[in-house]
Structure formats: structure tokens, C-alpha cells
Specification:
The protein is built from 15 helices and 11 strands. By secondary structure, the chain is of the alpha/beta class. The chain folds into 2 domains: about 250 residues, TIM Barrel; about 90 residues, no CATH class.
Length: about 350
């Protein structure tokens, strides 16, 4: 059981906030295949408080998409606080503060991972958000293990971590790479173990290099973290959550059948069409389809088919041709699937 403030989450692997990915369709599909808790896409505080289509879409939360976390990014404490209050009023179940985004344009505007280099500013934001939320929802942080590998960066990290818990943060997610690393090189799980030992009873979630259910359980066993957030590993693979649940229960897992994969992609498409017009829906599902292809017995061919699909009808054609459950597909063991993905550089 993962405890984050008043939230009790039976499955300790939750879907992370993913810019450009973890919209409602992705979350609905993830929940269909085992995710209990999900976080919406990271959003700028100013877009939350500004009237418009983005705010309206952000505030449409269905009963089938709960419990739900909202992740905020910005640089001004008062604006962060206002946006956090708006998300609470809209019905979000948790407010997460992003101090980990490594994208250059974000860093250049003193947001995301940049704030790991400014502990006073970062804690000013945490303080403002917790005051604004006023105990109505748990407030959490997303951090990387520092801005870079310097000793000063590590001191700043622990200053923010300790200060956030002292202010009342319910949990902190730690990604095992620095901001400077972005996604290059392995995630440092030894650092996650140090953080958990340091935090003691404070709830720590681990992040980084979680592309399989086996990796999720390995991280928890090796580092002692209370739970994990699955980010890129859930793109095109909602089945990772059901597989985590199975392993936690001591059960064996097998790759999803082509019929199950088709069910997931079709649900993803149907939910996407509820949000966007045909052109945008086709482009969005094509993007996810490239990820879904990694699970298919004919991975390379299906991946190329999605890459070549530029319109909605072409995406549907990929489903018709490559996800025909009446066709006899090669049998793929889980071990072979993982070996092939590693060889292809997909893991």
C-alpha cells in the first residue's frame, strides 16, 4: 500500500506526468489495464489560471479518471499558489510541483529543473502551494537528483527535500538523473537508496529507467523506495501496470496478445476522438502507436506502418492490417520480447 497523505493506493506503481503524453486518453487506457493512480500532463501555472480552451479541457475530469494528480510548473510562488487552488477546486486529488523538467526552454525561463539550483525560491513555491491548498489535498514534489553532479548541487537537493517535508509535503518523487543529464546515461538507483535512507518515514517515490514490470520491482527492492512513477515506460505499454500487479502477487506474466494490443489502441483512439478533431486525433494516436508497436510480434513492420500513417484513416488501416486477431501471428515469449527490444534500443 502506497500512502500519500490521505490517499491509499494499493498498487505502488503509478503513472507519471508526461508532457505531451499523459492526457486523458492515455490515462484511461492505463487505468483499463491496471493503473490505479495517474497524473495529468505537466502544465504551466499561467495556463491553469488563464481562461481559455486549455483551462476548460484541463478541468474536465471524469469519474473514470480518479484519483488524479495535477502537476504544475512555473517560477512565481503566488502564481503557483493560485493555480494549485484552481486545480483543487476543479477536483484534482493531489497537487504535484515540478522541479525536475530538463527541457532547455523550461530551464531558460527559470522553471522545472532550474529551481533545483535555487533552494530558497523552490521552497518559497512549496510554502505558497501548501498554504493555498490548505490541507484539502496532499502536495508532492517531482525532483531530479540535482542540477548537475557538483557537491553544491547535491547540497541544494537535500536542502529542498528536507525543507519540503518540514513544510508538509506528503511525498517526493526522485528521478535518478541530474537535470544536465536529461535522459542520457543510466538512472542512479544508488542515489535513490541514499535518499530513502535519509528521508526515513518520509514517502519517497523512485523514477528513471522503468520500462518493465521487472524493473519496477527491482527498483523497489534495491532502493527501498515506497513506490515508483512510471513515465516513458508507459508510453504505448499500459500493460506494464497489470504486469506490476501480477508480479507483486507472485504471478507469472506473459506478453499481451495481439487482440489485447488492438483493444488498447482502439480504446486510445476512441478516447482521443472525444477530445480532438480527426487530424489531431490521427497524429496523436500515430505518436502512441509507434510505442505500441514495440509489443507486437512484427515490431519493425508495425512500427514503420505507424510512422508512415499521417492521417486518421491510415491509423485505422494499421489496426485493420496489423492487429487482425483472426490472423496467425508468431508466438513471442516475454524473454524474447525484452531481448529484442533491448537489441533495438527501445529499452
Amino acid at each position: 500500500m502506497l500512502t500519500i497523505g490521505p490517499l491509499k493506493i494499493a498498487m505502488p506503481a503509478i503513472q507519471a506526468a508526461l508532457s505531451g503524453f499523459s492526457d486523458r486518453p492515455m490515462r484511461v487506457v492505463a487505468r483499463r489495464f491496471g493503473a490505479e493512480f495517474a497524473t495529468a500532463e505537466v502544465v504551466l501555472d499561467e495556463l491553469v489560471i488563464r481562461e481559455g480552451k486549455h483551462r476548460a479541457r484541463l478541468f474536465k475530469i471524469g469519474d473514470d479518471d480518479r484519483p488524479l494528480g495535477g502537476q504544475l510548473m512555473g517560477s512565481r510562488p503566488e502564481q503557483f499558489a493560485e493555480a494549485a487552488n484552481d486545480l483543487v477546486e476543479a477536483g484534482y486529488d493531489l497537487i504535484d510541483i515540478n522541479f525536475g523538467c530538463p527541457v532547455k526552454k523550461v530551464l531558460g525561463r527559470c522553471r522545472g529543473g532550474f529551481l533545483l539550483s535555487e533552494p530558497e525560491n523552490a521552497l518559497g513555491i512549496v510554502r505558497a502551494v501548501i498554504r493555498a491548498v490548505g490541507g484539502r489535498r496532499p502536495v508532492t514534489l517531482k525532483m531530479r537528483r540535482g542540477f548537475d553532479d557538483s557537491a553544491e548541487s547535491e547540497r541544494n537537493f537535500f536542502s529542498i527535500l528536507d525543507g519540503a517535508f518540514a513544510l508538509g509535503a506528503a511525498a517526493v518523487t526522485v528521478h535518478g538523473r541530474t537535470v544536465k543529464q536529461r535522459y542520457i546515461g543510466p538512472s542512479n538507483w544508488d542515489f535513490l537508496a541514499r535518499v530513502k535512507r535519509h528521508a526515513g518515514s518520509g514517502t519517497i517515490l523512485g523514477s528513471g529507467d522503468l520500462f518493465t514490470a521487472e524493473a519496477v520491482l527491482q527498483m523497489m527492492a534495491e532502493t527501498g523506495v515506497d513506490g515508483v512513477t512510471v513515465a516513458r515506460g508507459a508510453i504505448g505499454n499500459p500493460f506494464i501496470f497489470r504486469e506490476c500487479r501480477a508480479l507483486l502477487q507472485g504471478l507469472e506474466i506473459t506478453p499481451p496478445s495481439v487482440a489485447e494490443q488492438r483493444e488498447a489502441v482502439e480504446l486510445h483512439l476512441a478516447e482521443t476522438l472525444k477530445l480532438y478533431d480527426d487530424a489531431r486525433a490521427g497524429a496523436t494516436v500515430r505518436k502512441f502507436g509507434i510505442g505500441y508497436a514495440d509489443l507486437h510480434p512484427m515490431r519493425d513492420e508495425v512500427r514503420q506502418a505507424f510512422i508512415n500513417a499521417s492521417k486518421l484513416e491510415e491509423v485505422r488501416s494499421v489496426l485493420t492490417v496489423w492487429y487482425d486477431d483472426q490472423r496467425e501471428w508468431p508466438t513471442v515469449t516475454r524473454r524474447k520480447m525484452l531481448r529484442d527490444l533491448i537489441a533495438a534500443g527501445a529499452l
